[in-house]
Amino acid sequence: MRSPISSSPSHPFSPSSQIITLLTDFGSADYFVASMKGVILSINAQARIVDITHEIPPQDIPAAAFTLLATYKAFPRQTIHVAVVDPGVGSRRRPILLSASDQFFVGPDNGIFSYILDRESHARVFEITNESYFRKPISPTFHGRDLFAPVAAALSSGLAPESFGREIQDCVRLAPLKPEKLAGGKIRARIIHIDRFGNCVTNLTPAELGSEVIGNGAALEIGRRRIKTIRRFFSEETGSGAEVFAIWGSAGFLEIAAMNQSAAKILKARPGQTVFLLGDNV
Amino acid sequence: MRSPISSSPSHPFSPSSQIITLLTDFGSADYFVASMKGVILSINAQARIVDITHEIPPQDIPAAAFTLLATYKAFPRQTIHVAVVDPGVGSRRRPILLSASDQFFVGPDNGIFSYILDRESHARVFEITNESYFRKPISPTFHGRDLFAPVAAALSSGLAPESFGREIQDCVRLAPLKPEKLAGGKIRARIIHIDRFGNCVTNLTPAELGSEVIGNGAALEIGRRRIKTIRRFFSEETGSGAEVFAIWGSAGFLEIAAMNQSAAKILKARPGQTVFLLGDNV
Amino acid sequence: MRSPISSSPSHPFSPSSQIITLLTDFGSADYFVASMKGVILSINAQARIVDITHEIPPQDIPAAAFTLLATYKAFPRQTIHVAVVDPGVGSRRRPILLSASDQFFVGPDNGIFSYILDRESHARVFEITNESYFRKPISPTFHGRDLFAPVAAALSSGLAPESFGREIQDCVRLAPLKPEKLAGGKIRARIIHIDRFGNCVTNLTPAELGSEVIGNGAALEIGRRRIKTIRRFFSEETGSGAEVFAIWGSAGFLEIAAMNQSAAKILKARPGQTVFLLGDNV
Fold first, then answer.
1. Is there a contact between A89 and B234 if contact means CB atoms under 8 Å apart?
2. What is this model's ipTM?
3. Is the pTM of this model over 0.90?
C-alpha cells in the first residue's frame, strides 16, 4: 500500500515529536485504538501518543466533552487532541478541526468540543474536507483510523489548519457550560458529569460562588435536598456529619460528593439535572 | 544484575526507535505488562512501545490471532509485534519469530500467528533457541518478560532473525482463514471473532463476494436464519427493518451485526460457527 | 499560566528521555492519569512515560506496594517511579522521594514504598517540601497532578533529590516483608497479595526455603489446610491430583495456586493472612 500522503510532494512532512492525545469510547479490548496509533506512527514516526481515556461510555458525547475540558490545560502548547465519540460515523456529520488555546482538536462535529469553545473565545473551527490526507479506502465505520488519525498526524508534521478545509462558524454545540443567573441572586446550574465514584460534577466555578461561599449562608439545592456543607478535601473532619457535601473538584468545578459512597446514588442524580445555587437570603 | 545481553560483545546493540507492539491476555491490573516494558527499555531505551490490547480473553488464541490480523497493516515497516497468549508457558511449546510483510512477530508457537501466515505467503518462521538473548533466570511461568520481551528488544536493535534460531516449516496453525468453495457456488465460511458488542466477524472478504453482493439476491445463512440486508454504516436507514444485517467491518471482513443490540445473542452464535454464503440461485 | 518551574533560573531544566512510571488507583476511565502525563510532558517533553497499572483496588496501599516491588527491577537505572494510592491526600501526610537501587520513587508517605525499603538497605528518603516545584494552585484532592507529577518531571531533568527537601528516617512502614523464624524451624509467613486469578502470593522466597523444598517433606499450612505439592509451571502434570498447590511465581515469591480456579476462594484466604512453612519434622 503506497501512502497517499508520502506521495504528495506539495506537502512535505517533517517528523516532529508533537504530542497527540486520544479520547474515545472504543474500550481497550479491541484493535481500534492500536490501529489509530499505527496509522499515526506510519505518517509521523516521532509523534508522542498519549491516551486520555478509551472508556467514555458508548456514544456519551457530554462525558467526552467534560473529560477533554478537564485535562487539556495540563498539556503543552501545540498538543493535538483527537476525540472520537461518534454515533454518526459514516453519515453526513462533518469532521472538524479546532485551533484553540495554542492547541489543536480533531474529531466529529457533534458537540464533543463544545466546552472547549465555551472556554476559548479565540477558537477557530475548520471543516475537514481535504481527502488527500485521509487513509484510502476509508471505512464507513472507522473514521478514527482512516480520517481523524491521519489528519492529526499530518497536522503534527507542521501543516496549517487551513490545509484541511475552510473555516466554519456553525458547529454543533451542547448546552452552554456557563450557569444562568436568575432573578434574586439565584443561579441555575446543572450536573455536567457523574464520575465512576458517583461524584456529581456541576458547572459551578469560583466565578459564580465569589465571596458567597457555601456554608456561609449559601446552599446548593438539588431536587428537594439542600446541601450546606463544603469541604476542602475528602478526609477532612468538618464535624457537620453531613452525608452529602460540596467540594471543589480538581477539574475546577464544584462537585457534590459523599464520603465513601456514591452521591449520585444517594441523590438519584442524573447528568444534565438542574442544581440551584441559593444566596443566604433565599 | 548484569545483563546477559550487554555482556555479549559479539552482538553490539544499537538503540533504535523501532516500534514494538504488545498483545496479551494479561489484563492491565497486574505487574505483568509493565515488566515486559521495563525489560524492553532496559535493552533498547529508544524502543517505542505500543499496546495493541491486554484484554484478550484468557488463553483465547483465535481472538489474539484475529486482533493481530486486524491491526498489523496499520503499523509501519519494521514494526515488531509481540503476542503472548500462552496457555502452554513452561511446557515444550516452541517460541517462534516470524518475518512477514516487512514486519516481525514474536510469540509462542500455538497458532497465534496463523492468520498472518495465511495472508503473507512470503513469511519465514524461525524457532527461537538462542538462550543468550533471554533474561536470566527465566521464570517458567512468565516467558513474556523473560524470553519474548528481550528477544523483541534485541531484534529492535538490528539483529537478523537468523540470530535467534533456525528456520522451521512446521509451525502450529489454526483452521485456514480462507472460506471454502463448495459445489454450486455455495461458500462455507465461519465466524472468526465475536467482538464485545456482539458483532460476529466472518472470514468473508470482498474476494468471495465479488459482484455477487448480498441483497442483490445473495444471502448469508447461519443456523436456520437467512440474512439478506447489507448496510454501509451503522446509522444507515435502509427501510428494510431487518433486525440482523451484514456490514463490511473495518477489519476488511463481512460482519453480522444488529442495531444497538448483540447480533451474537440474537443468533446464539459462537466463534468458529459455520456461515454459508448463498448465491442468488441457491 | 506561566510555569513556576521555567521561571526559576537557578534550576535550569534539561529535557532528558528518562523513564517515569505511573502506578495509581485512579482507573483509566477518568481524566486523572492523562492530566498527570500532560503535566510531566509540559515540564520535560522528552520524558518516557510507562504505566505500571492504574487498577490498584481503591486505597489498597499493600497491593500498590507489592505491584511496585514485583516490577521495579525490570526497569533500567535512573527510572523514576511515581506511585499514588493516597487516601490521605490533602491532609498532613507527607510527600516523599526515595533514592534506592539507582532508581527514584515519588509518592505519599503511607507505606507504599515499604517493600522497596525492606529490599534496598542503602535507600535514602527525602520529605518533599520545596513548593517551587509544585503546580499552582495545588488542588487539595489531586496531588498526583499538582505535586507528584511535577516533582517527578523536575527530577527527570537532572535535579538532585536534596533539591526537594531534607532527608528523613521515620517514614511510614507496612509489616516487614521478611518472614519470621520461629522455634523448631517453623517459619511464620503471610499472604502479601492476592492477584485477580485468586493466586495467593506469600512473602516466602528461596532464602527461606533453601534446601528444605516443599514436597520433600516440608509443607505450607494455611488455616487448617496443609499444602505439600509444588509445581514448576501451571500446565505441569504432577500426578498428585492436588487441588491447591504451591508454585514459584514470577515476582520471586512462593504462591498458592489452583489449576483454572481461584486458590483464594477455595482457601477463603485474605491478604495479610498467616501462612506457616513447616519443616519435615514438624
1. yes
2. 0.91
3. yes
